[in-house]
Amino acid sequence: MFKLEPRPTPSTTLMLASPLVALAITVVIGVLLFIALGKDPLAGLQMFFVEPLNSSYALSELSVKATPLILIGLGLAVCFRANIWNIGAEGQFIMGAVFAGGVAMRATPESSSAIWLLVLLAGAVGGMLWAAIVALLRDRFNASEILVSLMLVYVADMVLSYLVYGPWKDPQGYNFPQTITFLEMTRVPKLMTGLRMNVGVGFAALAVLILTVFMARTHAGFQLQVGGLAPAAARYAGFSSRRALWTGLLLSGGMAGLAGGLDAAGPQGQLTPYIPLGYGFGAIIVAFVGRLNPVGIVFSAVLMSMFYIGGELAQSRLGLPKALTGVFQGLLLFALLACDTFIHQRLRWVTSK
Amino acid sequence: MTGLTADSLALLIAATLNAGTVVALAALGLLINERAGVLNLGAEGMMLVAAIAGYATCVHTGSDTLGFAAGALAGAGMAMVFGVLVIWLNTNQYASGLALSLFGAGLSAFVGISYTQQRLPERAHFDIPFLSDLPFVGPAFFKHHPLVYAAVALTLGLSRFLMKSRAGLVLRAVGESPESAHALGYAVRRIRLAAVMMGGALCGLAGAYISLVYTPLWVEGMVAGKGWIALALTTFATWRPARVLLGAYLFGGVTMLQFQLQGQGVQIPSQWLTMLPYLSTIVVLVLISRNPTWIRINMPASLGKPFHPGT
Lengths: 353, 311
Known about the structure:
The structure holds two protein chains of two kinds. By secondary structure, chain A is mainly α. Chain A has a single domain, classed as Orthogonal Bundle (ABC transporter involved in vitamin B12 uptake, BtuC). Helices cover 69% and strands 3% of the residues of chain A. In chain A, strands 1-2 form a two-stranded antiparallel ribbon. In chain A, 51% of the residues are buried. Chain B is mostly helical. Chain B has a single domain, classed as Orthogonal Bundle (ABC transporter involved in vitamin B12 uptake, BtuC). Chain B is built from 13 helices and no strands. The chains are: A mainly alpha, B mainly alpha. Chains A and B meet through helix 6, helix 11 and helix 13 of A and helix 3, helix 4, helix 10 and helix 12 of B.
């Protein structure tokens, strides 16, 4: 029979290969699924892996989806490395959009042309405050951050819904649940005319840089990671687990909030009940597939965005439900977790006991 | 605000038991696998997949029984995948459970899209002869789906099983100290897998209850966090079946309070009322977690930790 045994040293080849193997497994299952549904698998592959990349329009759309995924994924990676399980980024994203929208709605034609920066700042603050609730309850009362952060997703969703159906509803909006369209100067500047790609891409790139340095080169980043890997060692070294908790949650909440602000003041341009697009959950997969590494997260966010766009194309062209994206995302994470076991372990054939 | 009439109070009690049963079934299942030392964050995903599996089966066969069976099987099947990953491949339990939840949300939405327009056959009414005719107690307690009573029986049975039976003792030993259980010759990993699948089956039953009885239709994401609330409930109940049931009814009461208040014309936007169950879950979590020692004493000692035999 086969037996799993620990490797003397982790396999570095597999550490890099495992996401690719996981992707290959997902693709194989996807092809089988397309065949089972009677759809052309080659057309499917093209929708997921070629079309999201083959024009400037496609790349711009890819950036619109990848930007929030990168921002949220980076924040979550810091959390997960510190063994803090913030899985409510979706709620922090929503509150970011709400705060950003709140500022954007107050702009008048006389406002400064740089007010969009204030809008984004409000977004980051909104996400941070929402995550601070989680940190506070964990810190003061020991309440599970997993469950609290998740419950707050539903609460945030209801706050948004209350606002757009109630006090923030556009009086001229024919009673649709939506706010006014934000004024032009509150909108995130676009990089090229005619394309939706905006300066958010720059924020994402900057964040990758900053977090790479933070994780690999700073003492605070080191403390955070030791706390996750070996809590006892961290305690012995006098690293504060409370500080790690607050840093991780405020950082990831702020990043998710910024992503929410970028989305509300970017492609959306107003608040509607359809602001939550699942980026907060998708980013969990992004963080893991990217090995909780800032550069890896860029690649996995691009991949995940291709899944989103492929899913939309499969819906419009083949009549398949858009939820296909979620199926593939889940499969990818499963496959990755399974493949990852073989980094630290190997299979060996044992004849008999 | 008008006072509660006896009739509306009876209906409120009935609705509370109905809503509580959903969470109770799921939480009792999760309690089994947590007692064996495995934390499955995939409850929400299993319930969603079970909800659509049960719904689809009932639409095609017209049989509720087959629908519930399909739900339980779907839950157990998903739990098996999770179990093999975390028990044999030693993957991280948090990450794997999350993967299960995300995958379940996607899969159920994908499969369910063709069922949003399909209707279930006529829903049956359940009246216990004679008892259901009693004033007040009849409509409050004796007009429920059989699973409502089954959940109570399951609670009592599970309490007895865990505390009074040999098999229950083994299950707890596996959760408290897998090394000792292994040394005594128990197949720790197989017992854990069985517990995980049992948990999945009960979550599946709860999911099917949602789509077949609680809100008899299919809507994407219709479990609406009840899987997560069930997870919170096991902690709240410090892993005791009777407290799980009590907590579930409490949750059911809070859920139903919103409809009661709306029905009475209380001027609160519906969104604030919809938040109530989630907010109260947070409040309860805070209250119960305040004392870390209390949790640590009651929590199965190996919860969430992988077990490697022979190391």
